[in-house]
Structures are given as C-alpha cells and as structure tokens.
Design goal:
single chain; 459 residues; alpha/beta; Aminopeptidase; Alpha-Beta Plaits; seven-stranded mixed beta sheet; four-stranded antiparallel beta sheet; 15 helices; globular; binds zinc ion; Aminobenzoyl-glu_utiliz_pB
Length: 459
C-alpha cells in the first residue's frame, strides 16, 4: 500500500468523516460539557476496531484515547470538539444567521479538528493492517481547548504517557505547516475582602475592596511599559461591588498574561501578583488569589515541520465547486478589505480572484506568520516531538471566532480543507512508520530544545 493509496482511502471514507464533523456542528457543546461529542467519537472508533482508554479522573471525564496497533512508534493524533458561546451559525451561509440566537457554535472549527484526527486515525489503522508494520496510532479526544486547559490537565495526569510523537490540526484561512507561534499564558483570579460601611454616614469605618482592585490594576497598567513589548496583559473586573452607597466588602478581577515564552509569563505573573499585594496593602484589605490555569507556547520541531511541509506538497487539495468558490468569495468580501489584504500579505497570496488559499505558505513567511492566540497544544509540544498544521478550511482573511469561520466550518468548504489535512497527517504517519530515522532525529531535537528546561505543568 502506497502513500497515495491512503489518500484514496480517505476519499472513499470522506462521507463518514464529514458526517462526524457535521454531527459536532449540529450539536455544539461548550468546553467542559462535551459529553455527546466525546461519546460519538468513542462509539465511532470502537466500531472501527479501536480500543478505548479513559483516565478515571473527574476533571478528565470527556477526555480519552482510542488506540490501534502494536509497538513503536506510538503516534498521537489530537482531536478536539468544543464549541464557543454565542457563535451559533447556519453552516454554509454567506450572512450571519444564528441557528439559535446567542447559542453555541463552532466558530473555531473544532468540529473539523475532531474529524481530521478521526480520519487520520482510520487511515493510519488501515496502513498498519495492510503493511503489518510495527506501530500504534492513538486518537486523543481532547476536551475544553477553548478554556486552554484540557490538554494541560491531560498532561498533569500523564494522559500522553507512552506516546512518541503527536500531530495536531487547526482549520485556518491558509495552508501552513506551522513552525512557531502560540503565546504561553497564565490565567489568574484575584479576590479582595474589605469591610462594608455606609458610604455617606460612616465611610471611615469601611475598607473598599474595589479600591484595592482599582489600585492593583493601576499598578499593572504602569508596569506595562516595563515588560517585553510582545507580552499581553488583559483583565476584567468580575465584581466591583453592589451599589455606590455601600463600601464594597468584596471585589474581584480576572487576568490573562501572555508572552512568547513561558519563562516570561511566569515572571510577569509574579509581578502582577505583587501589584495585587500592593493594592491590598494600600487599602487595608485582604487578598486571596488563584492561578486558575496556564499553558505553554509551541515548542518548534524543525524535523517534523519539514516532514509536514513535504506532505503538504505530496498531497492534493480537494477541488472546489463553483458554488463553494462563490460562498468563499462572499464570506471573504463580508470582511473589511484591509483585513483581507493584510492577511494576503502575511501568506503571500495575491490572486485577487481566488478566495480559497491554494499552494503552501512559503517557509520564510510561515516562520514570521503571527499566531498570537494561545493553545493547550503548546503543552503537548513540550512533552514530545510535535507538529501542527493549518489548512485553508476558511476563506482568505477569515479569522477564528467569527460567524464567517463558523459558517465555513459547517459546510463542504471547511470539510474539504479538513480532508486535505487528514491526508497530510496520514502521509506523515506513513513516513514515520517507514523511516525510523524521522523519530530518532525529531526526538533528538526535542531533547536538545528542552535540555535544562523540562516541562513544568502550569496546573
Ligand atoms: Zn478558539
Ligand atoms: Zn481553535
């Protein structure tokens, strides 16, 4: 069985893979609520001859892996399935059209991520069966990516033990073998307690928890000048008191700190906490806080990135119908033209009549491509050699967490982009099984990059 036969195998099973993505799209579940989504994949994989493993912990009730094969290499394909609040959208529409007003929807296309790993695992199994080679494939069901802690918790409970390498996918507006990016992050909650009092009659008896929040925020805001410029610090006040005539006894804020490297996040976190301590000290209030979560940046692996690029080149994108091209155009044109133009420049794609990226973002452009969100895939990349890929499942210029990305994720536009990704993942699996040197060199690179700086689970 040759590599291209596996691409053909995926074409043959496209309907089954698309149906899985469609089921998730039609039944969106938010982070921590993915009961039906995880059950569907368990059912499908079991039916296809995989063995299901669960982890037992309550925090991981919607996480699992499904395994097929024997011996090494053990390759993990990471599936996700959580949706986003408020992004309900009729799939395949060129206008904003919620299925349910204010309802959840797949604006990040995680329905396609789950389906891609499912397709990848199916074809990997097919190859192991046909070739008789040693090797194991694992589909990982990874919940709550949008909370940025699903895989962090999985790492905490050693869910990835036994894997030699991992492949991941995210739908995007371009074809990119991702070489760098995703900011490391910490998520912190601060709670202040003061003393309530009548704000007019006896303010001197009160100690305002809201004052503490405000002064702490002020401290952080002047600190911004003295952190690396690539860091991002954002907060909201989650409790600011009840009424102006009551000195607030309780007040609270919620912070995210992000930076390209985890070590910077850890240091800025320490300084943000100092600002909060200062706020409490200045106002004679009491501070309580928790680091509610955090994740790592993506640790690059040049060996696997090059392998991904080779497979982008070897596999072919699915052809698009006139209808799909027209939808892509309409979705792209619903955006401000400058936004689309900027994105065209980022990916080096200037064909003004094409609204679905074709070709592959060049190596140089990919190494500069801005990925300034965070993802819990970063943590997996610190555990083992790791590769993630983006494919053009959304039209040019369309960003994640929008009704446009939701619309594309719920129709053949997104599904075809996802199938291309599943073929690339399968091709990478084929190469790893047939050439043991890939794992050896990727693992050596991983060891070198983490030497003296091993993974330290943020949770
Ligand atoms: Zn997202
Ligand atoms: Zn996402």
């Amino acid at each position: 069985m040759k590599k291209q036969d596996l691409a053909g195998y995926l074409d043959l099973h496209a309907e089954e893979i698309f149906a899985a993505s469609r089921y998730l799209y039609d039944n969106p579940e938010l982070s921590k609520e993915e009961e039906n989504s995880s059950s569907m994949f368990k059912r499908l994989l079991k039916k296809n001859g995989f063995t299901i493993h669960e982890f037992g912990q309550d925090e991981l009730k919607y996480a699992f892996y499904a395994e097929y094969g024997n011996g090494h290499p053990v390759v993990a394909m990471l599936g996700e399935y959580d949706a986003l609040p408020g992004l309900s959208q009729e799939g395949g529409y060129s206008e904003m059209k919620p299925v349910e007003n204010g309802g959840a929807g797949h604006g990040c296309g995680h329905n396609l991520i789950g389906a891609c790993a499912f397709g990848g695992a199916l074809s990997a199994k097919k190859y192991l069966e046909e070739s008789g080679h040693s090797g194991t494939v694992r589909f990982y069901g990874c919940p709550q990516e949008e909370m940025l802690d699903g895989k962090v918790l999985m790492a905490k409970y050693h869910a990835f033990d036994g894997c030699d390498m991992a492949f991941a996918y995210h739908p995007w507006n371009a074809n990119i073998p991702v070489s760098q990016g995703f900011l490391a992050m910490n998520n912190m909650k601060f709670h202040f307690t003061g003393i309530t009092a009548h704000a007019g009659q006896a303010p001197e008896q009160g100690r305002s928890a809201l004052d503490a929040v405000e002064l702490s925020n002020m401290g952080v805001n002047v600190m911004r000048e003295h952190v690396i410029s690539s860091a991002r610090i954002h907060y909201v006040i989650t409790n600011g008191g009840e009424a102006p005539n009551i000195v607030p006894k309780e007040a609270a804020s919620w912070y995210y700190v992000r930076a390209p490297h985890r070590k910077d996040v850890v240091d800025i976190t320490r300084r943000v906490i100092n600002c909060q301590k200062g706020g409490a000290l200045m106002t004679d209030t009491f501070l309580d806080y928790e680091i509610a979560g955090g994740c790592y940046e993506l640790l690059p692996n040049d060996v696997l990135c090059a392998l991904a690029r080779k497979n982008f080149e070897e596999m072919e994108m699915c052809p698009y119908t006139e209808e799909e091209n027209a939808l892509a155009r309409a979705l792209s044109e619903s955006l401000p033209p400058e936004q689309v133009q900027t994105e065209r420049e980022h990916i080096g794609f200037y064909d003004a009549d094409s609204f679905i990226h074709s070709g592959i973002v060049a190596k140089e452009a990919a190494s500069r491509y801005p990925i300034t969100g965070s993802s819990d895939i970063g943590d997996v990349s610190w555990l083992m050699p790791f590769s993630t890929i983006f494919t053009a499942a959304w039209p040019v210029g369309v960003n994640a967490h929008t009704w446009q990305s939701a619309s594309a994720s719920g129709c053949t536009l997104g599904q075809k982009g996802m199938l291309y990704a599943a073929k690339i993942m399968t091709g990478m699996f084929y190469d790893v099984i047939n050439d043991s040197e890939i794992l050896e060199t990727a693992a050596a690179e991983h060891r070198k990059r983490t030497e003296g700086n091993p993974y330290d689970c943020p949770m």
